[in-house]
Write a structure and sequence with these properties.
Layout lengths: L1 H20 L4 H8 L3 H8 L7 H11 L3 H8 L8 H9 L5 H29 L20
Helix pairs in contact: 2-4, 4-5
Pfam families: HTH_3
Protein name: Helix-turn-helix domain-containing protein
Keywords: DNA-binding
Length: 144
């Protein structure tokens, strides 16, 4: 039960931090998210753990990805992406929206490169000739 309280506290703190970064008052966010002011206050203080639906509404009000809130709330596992993705997610100087855009661009480059890799590798693979066989492109041998 202690773990649930920690998660509620963590998500509340995270929401408060995002609200503060966006320079939105508690009252403004409650209107944007369509949740009552007291309920949002309880979430931020860690008294209540919001449902996925409420988190989605709050994310919409904060203009951040719902996935970011789901990860913070323990609903979703932190996506893998290696050290670059981890560094982007950990950067406190970036907003959630900026982080998501960077991650999307990075992943699109990775997908593009992995899709083109088999073609590039086959072109770069050195040609091998069976042992003892003559290479028809070998012009160093003199013909008799």
């Amino acid at each position: 039960m202690e773990k649930v309280a920690d998660i509620a506290s963590d998500i509340g703190e995270y929401i408060r931090q995002q609200r503060s970064n966006a320079k939105i008052s508690l009252r403004q966010l409650s209107k944007l998210a369509g949740v009552s002011n007291p309920y949002l206050s309880q979430i931020e203080r860690g008294v209540r753990k919001p449902s996925a639906e409420i988190l989605q509404q709050i994310a919409k009000g904060l203009r951040i990805s719902a996935e970011a809130l789901y990860v913070q709330a323990g609903i979703l596992d932190l996506p893998t992406g290696g050290p670059v993705g981890d560094a982007i997610r950990a950067d406190a100087e970036l907003t959630e929206r900026q982080k998501q855009v960077l991650l999307d661009v990075y992943e699109s480059f990775r997908r593009e490169n992995s899709a083109s890799r088999p073609v590039a590798e086959s072109a770069a693979t050195p040609k091998t000739t069976a042992p003892g066989a003559e290479d028809p492109e070998d012009t160093t041998k003199e013909s008799a």
